[in-house]
Structures
1.
Amino acid sequence: MVASQQQPGLHTNLSDTQLLKLNQMLVFVSQNNEFYREKLNNISFPIHSTKDLQELPFTTKAELVEDQKNFAPHGKNHTFTKSEYVRYHQTSGTTGRPLKVMDTKESWSWWEDCWLEVFRSSGVTKEDTVYLAFSFGPFIGFWGAFEAAKKLGALVITGGSQTSKERLNSLIDNDATVLLGTPSYALHLGEVAKQNNIDLRETGVKKIITAGEPGGSVPSIRNQIETIWGATLFDHVGMTEMGAYGYSCSEHNGLHINESEFIAEVVNPDTLKSVEIGERGELVLTNLGRYGYPLIRYRTGDIVIHSSESCPCGNTYKLLPKGIIGRKDDMVVIRGINIYPSSIEAIVREFSAITEYRIIYYTKGGMDQIKLQIETNVDISSIVATHLRDRVGLRIDVEVVETNILPRFDMKARRVLDKRDAF
Ligand SMILES: [Zn+2]
């Protein structure tokens, strides 16, 4: 059990642990879960090494969504009868129809344990007061963190249905020591604090755990948040359908995958073959302890660097240097160059004078173009444009817009507007 480990990521026999858990899961799921019984019907279990996992078929989100459409409302990817299920979540639906995901008591407890690992890696203890700036709707967001903080014995304060100002007041009044939110929202709270003459460095918040967007592992974004709050930022990554699978450590040089509970592969999204060490590819994950909602070789759509680097922090779990580089679905090709919005954001956040931004793709004279809109009190458009041209390799128009006209987000920020002719 993850819950019994006091030191995250210290394993002497990780591959044995993984193989044992993988086989237990595969044997059970291939017999009791209709979705996987059909998918794996020609394969005999147990397998002999975790490498043999590569012989099994991939699972995609499109497949899960299609299954739910055909077998409404919950599809066939459940291993137990409905009466065993206690928690329901759905994906945010940013890239299509939301996916419904249910957990049994055991599966949900497994989520909590995965989140406990995130807290331990960040040094959060039962002495802490954890404030969750999250709306607590059907999206999974910080629900797992809420349960894990409770399990840890920390005091948990929920910030659902509150304005940003109310959230600030609540976390100050209650002496919160840890803030959980998206990187965008941590920055937004900084803006609100400034408007209200609040110095966040004087609050009790000394740790911030971000999730929901890749920003927490981007140095320029992390530095900005840490400076505004006078706190240390830790990043976390998870998915509704997969689980809470990764977290940053004291070295802040990427994300570790919790390999006791997940097996990771990095594949070329076109050939679906493993990429070489040092190359970028799509992260493919298998969860080992979520029997109620198992996913085997799930194509996450997250682009990462395949690395064999060992981390100086001592955690031996696989490291994803620089965290999630971008989403496969978010990548666009403009004039022959692969563009991830996250790489533009990394540059934008180096300028602390920029409070909000938006990326617009459009077509002019038959050519695809990019424009960046920024909110700032100082006209730094030409210097930002120079940085973008030098580092992205493309001329991007930068336009300064009026303060507070661009939308703000507390979960799953959507800062890209695609107005290209073909879309
Ligand atoms: Zn580390």
Note: Residues 1-328 form a domain with the Rossmann fold fold (CATH 3.40.50.12780).
2.
Amino acid sequence: MVDANGYRIVAFGQWAGVAGMINILHGLGLRFLALGHHTPFMHIGMAHNYRNVSQAIQAVRDCGYEISMGLMPRSIGPVTFCFTGTGNVSKGAQDIINELPVEYVEPHDLKDVSETGDMNKVYATVLSRHHHLVRKSDGIYDPMEYENHPELYTSHFRTSVSYFFPLTPINSATHSCRILLQPCSAQPLSSSCQSLRELIFQSVAVKNITLPDFVGK
Ligand SMILES: *[C@@H]1O[C@H](CO)[C@@H](O)[C@H](O)[C@H]1NC(C)=O
Ligand SMILES: *[C@@H]1O[C@H](CO)[C@@H](O)[C@H](O)[C@H]1NC(C)=O
Ligand SMILES: CC(=O)N[C@H]1CO[C@H](CO)[C@@H](O)[C@@H]1O
């Protein structure tokens, strides 16, 4: 929603990220349980069950303590999180994950850590526009121009950052908690944003498809 001058007047903020992250950690616990794994994420309830944020954070810390004690099932492999975007929502979500034993890595390191990383922690990466947006004509990213003319840009997320996405059954589970936090701008959906959304949607389908393989591991 924008005002007469095109300025955005409504936005999700930090608390959307905090509540969303708590809920998705809870969901991750249920997801792993459905796959036959009891994980420390089962400590975390839905955000609305907590009286205040410190109570919720305590539950996240309990989970983090068990992860650091090596209680994540080895068959799952290190869990990786990807925050798409660097705004207030992403920051709120990061505030919550920072209560877990987390190591931030560059997007191109995510594949490595998801395969050979430390089981006593989780890994996160913050994906920003410059990681995947390029001008269609010459492949360069100009942040100012992108703001005004997103239609001139495309995203190479699908190809260059594709290692986030489930290529193997194991990865499909470790990536099941990927988060799409960055809202598309108030302008009509740019093609890059659209393709990102499609990809997230697709990855959920891929995860489902590879699920029986994963259970067999
Ligand atoms: C949060 O809620 C818990 C449980 O009711 C309470 O003990 C604690 O004092 C509250 N913390 C804050 C900062 O309000
Ligand atoms: C993000 O949060 C800061 C600090 O609360 C606030 O000043 C800013 O307006 C917020 N940005 C948006 C886009 O809401
Ligand atoms: C839409 C779809 O592919 N659903 C599948 C998800 O995974 C379960 C378990 O393997 C299948 O039974 C569904 O058909």
Note: DSSP finds nine helices and five strands in the chain.
